[in-house]
From TrEMBL:
PROSITE patterns: ACT. It comes from Fusibacillus kribbianus. Residues 71-146 form the ACT domain. InterPro entries: ACT-like_dom_sf, ACT_dom, UPF0735_ACT_dom-cont. Gene3D superfamilies: 3.30.70.260. Pfam families: ACT (PF01842). This is UPF0735 ACT domain-containing protein QJ036_08585. Belongs to the UPF0735 family.
Amino acid sequence: MAEDNQYYVVRNKAVPEVLLKVVEAKRLLASERAMTVQEATEQVGISRSSFYKYKDDIFPFHDNARGKTITFVLQMDDVPGLLSTVLKTIAEYNGNILTIHQTIPINGVASLTLSVDVLPTTGDTSAMLETIEKLQGIHYLKILARE
């Protein structure tokens, strides 16, 4: 697995201040529907470029992740059985698929967006995503949201 695809759990005191401010700006944007990115970044004291640089790379960790929804997108080769393998992997971790959307493949590559309900019986979601990411034919996996 490539370095930039590893996940870590880090105590709050070890996280650089700019990343904590990105999390706060994201919280403000989610809670204040009318707030702009400019307003949120000004309020927490970071630049918009810092926000955009890190916004997709930091999420708050919730101990009570069970009962939550994870939405992620992946790019995958258009080969028979690959979608089935992705879905089987989610089933093996006892995740419940809520939504699935696959685009029409272009140049042999399709995008797949999945929302997965994390149940009390669901296994390690980070391991599930890592397993999917390592499948032959998967080009890219990115978490879009955790609710």
